[in-house]
Design a protein that fits this description.
Elements: E1 36-39, E2 42-47, E3 56-62, E4 68-78, E5 85-89, E6 98-101, E7 110-111, E8 116-122, E9 131-140, E10 142-144, E11 147-149, H1 152-163, E12 168-170, E13 175-177, E14 187-193, E15 200-207, E16 214-218, E17 241-242, E18 247-253, E19 262-268, E20 281-284, E21 287-290, E22 295-296, E23 316-317, E24 324-327, E25 330-333, E26 338-339, E27 354-355, E28 380-382, H2 397-400, E29 401-403, E30 410-416, E31 430-431, E32 438-444, E33 450-454, E34 476-477, E35 493-499, E36 507-512, E37 519-523, H3 536-540, H4 543-560, E38 574-577, H5 583-587, E39 596-600, H6 606-616, E40 622-625
């Protein structure tokens, strides 16, 4: 082997084999396998309930008649604009160039150039539209010079060819690119124009020779205008790019060697009509964006500030008023007793109010050192309501104190005690915490001042207050009667009442509703019920109650997992009847002498009881045990 001047290897061998491509696997679900096959006409209906995030769905349309081509006519169309797309291909598979559609505008009819076409729907990971409906028919193609035309694919191909032969002008929704590849030294241009700024160019695929073939974007109608970003090349499609005005020039240049598959993009005009941002939004790159937290902006005016076709705008910071502070980018009022100056910036960090400074009073100032002391050694006493005397900067003993009157004060000794707490809602013995009862000496001076001091007694000394009028320091609450409604704090019980417990304090107990019905067998000989006027003891000791207990014991022991006796069960009441409410119906409803009747425990509330009746009975008799 002839090498490059260095070491040679042993060479290689290879074998080329021609195989048939795998046949498509069509299904009844467009989003499974190779999708749905529509032959010689049909319909495509993809409604809102079928659209989901991240879908990839396919429909292949084929016309078998000679000279017939598929025609695709949409009757409705709604996909998330700029994010969820319908691609229509001029072939039976999703390859080659495609017409791209999105948004809510119903597309014009499309024809294939041959006997087959393909439609593909692709959604992103979030919002979906309402879907689309289309009809597929087979029509004769329009022939010019022996070639089928009137196809969107054909006109797009002509645009791509024209782009490399002097350039082409395109607009909203038009394709931009060379999806079928390109020739060495190709020079291609697309001038995109919109009614209003901006022009948005969105790339779908890109595969051009890295560092040698380039896509240039210009912010205007010529290459003399400012460039939009750096030249594009390689395999990575960029994010959508926008112009500042209503036009964008896209220019592609290839070198004279390696060729690659090309690139595919589409143009869009988001501002096809004059638009102004609403209050709380600002213009950024010709689109309305919400103002950042803590900022605001007035509604825009078409043709003026806030018109998306004009320049960018900005939001201004919200400033808080007097006695307001910033909390999570919002202005909040200060709490009572606190203050703050105006002007806090709501777009910045949180701010705080400060305690209102109290000054200029005889007493009760924020700084206690400013309070005036009226000393008895100086023959002075406090004026009445010292904290209400506003003496400003001239506070002194003259404005805040009175001379101690020569006449002695009027003296009273009074009992003082707070109110008792409310008796707790508990069963059994009840009491409330004791209260402090004290004797207070009250002195009323001639100037109206009142002084109070607690009486302090030496050991063995008698109180100066009226001992016979001394209030009680403790209070006993009456015991709640048995059967009084209470709360045992157990959420799983109901009908809580005070219940007597032998040898212990009364307790609050509720009834636990059964989770499910409990069935047991009962001999028919025991169907005689106690009289309606029977006492609880007579009911519990009746023959039917005894048989009920014996029948229940094995069932309950298995349920609770513990040993029980008949004394463990108390039958409080027995009610008998059917859906018609007659005992006669019960005894004649299949309870034969040689068999046993079956009864049910029911839940405690009437609503649950009715639900159990509906569930277990058609004309079956009920016996409820409580």
């Amino acid at each position: 082997m002839a090498g490059t001047g260095s070491v040679d290897g042993e060479g290689f061998e290879a074998e080329f084999v021609c195989t048939s491509p795998a046949a498509p696997e069509y299904t009844t679900d467009a989003c499974e396998g190779d999708g749905v096959l529509i032959t010689d006409g049909g319909s495509v209906s993809f409604a809102a309930g079928e659209l989901e995030p991240s879908q990839d769905c396919h429909w292949t349309v084929v016309c078998t008649g000679a000279g017939l081509v598929p025609q695709l006519t949409f009757s409705s169309f709604d996909t998330e604009a700029y994010f969820d797309y319908v691609y229509v291909y001029d072939s039976a598979s999703p390859s080659g160039q495609a017409v791209e559609m999105h948004g809510t505008e119903i597309p014009l009819p499309l024809w294939a150039t041959g006997s087959a076409g393909h439609m593909r729907y692709m959604s992103d990971w979030s919002v979906n539209g309402e879907g689309f409906d289309a009809t597929v028919t087979c029509v004769e193609g329009v022939v010019e010079d022996g070639v089928v035309y009137t196809s969107a694919f054909e006109s797009d191909q002509e645009d791509h060819e024209s782009a490399c032969d002097g350039g082409v002008v395109v607009g909203d929704g038009d394709a931009v690119g060379l999806p079928e590849g390109y020739s060495p030294s190709a020079q291609c241009s697309w001038l995109i124009t919109c009614p209003l700024a901006p022009v948005v160019l969105t790339f779908v695929e890109m595969d051009i020779e890295e560092n040698f073939d380039f896509i240039y974007l210009f912010d205007g109608e010529s290459s003399a205008d400012a460039a939009i970003g750096d030249p594009l090349h390689g395999l990575t499609a960029p994010e959508p790019l926008s112009s500042s005005g209503a036009s964008m020039l896209v220019h592609f240049e290839a070198d004279d060697s390696v060729e690659r598959p090309g690139f595919s993009a589409f143009a869009s005009c988001p501002n096809s009509e004059p638009t102004a941002c609403t209050e709380g939004y600002f213009v950024s790159n010709h689109l309305c964006e919400v103002c950042p937290p803590g900022t605001e902006n007035a509604a825009g005016v078409i043709g003026g500030v806030g018109d998306t076709s004009l320049g960018d705008t900005s939001c201004s910071a919200v400033t808080c008023d007097t006695d307001e502070r910033v909390n999570n980018h919002m202005c909040m009022s200060c709490s009572a007793g606190y203050e703050n100056e105006s002007g806090d910036d709501a777009s910045g960090p949180d701010t705080y109010c400060t305690l209102i400074r109290i000054t200029g009073l005889c007493a009760g100032n924020t700084d206690s050192a400013e309070d005036i002391a009226c000393l008895e050694d100086d023959g002075l006493m406090e004026k009445p309501d010292m904290e209400a005397i506003n003496c400003g900067e001239s506070c002194s003993t003259d404005s805040c104190c009175d001379p101690v009157p020569v006449a002695p004060p009027e003296v009273w000794f009074l009992w003082e005690a707070p109110a008792f707490q409310v008796c707790p809602e508990i069963c059994g013995a009840r009491s409330v915490p004791s209260r402090l009862v004290k004797c207070v000496k009250v002195m009323i001076f001639a100037n109206g001042a009142v002084e109070r001091e607690d009486e302090v007694l030496e050991d063995g000394a008698a109180t100066s207050c009226d001992a016979a009028a001394q209030p009680d320091a403790t209070r006993e609450c009456e015991t709640l009667p048995i059967g009084t409604a209470c709360d045992d704090t157990n959420a799983d019980t109901s009908n809580d009442v005070c219940t007597a417990v032998a040898g212990a304090e009364d307790v609050c107990q509720g009834l636990m509703a059964l989770v499910s019905a409990l069935t047991f067998d009962l001999p028919v000989e025991s169907l005689e019920l106690p009289d309606e006027s029977a006492s609880a003891e007579e009911i519990d000791g009746s023959e039917i109650a005894t048989d009920i207990k014996r029948s229940l014991l094995p069932v309950l022991e298995e349920s609770f997992g513990t040993r029980l006796t008949e004394d463990s069960i108390t039958v409080l009441s027995i009610q008998a009847g059917s859906l018609e409410g007659t005992l006669l119906k019960m005894t004649g409803n299949g309870c034969l002498a040689s068999s046993a009747c079956r009864f049910f425990f029911l839940k405690e509330t009437e609503r649950e009881r009715n639900r159990e009746r509906e569930r277990f009975l058609s004309d079956q008799t009920i016996m409820a045990l409580h």
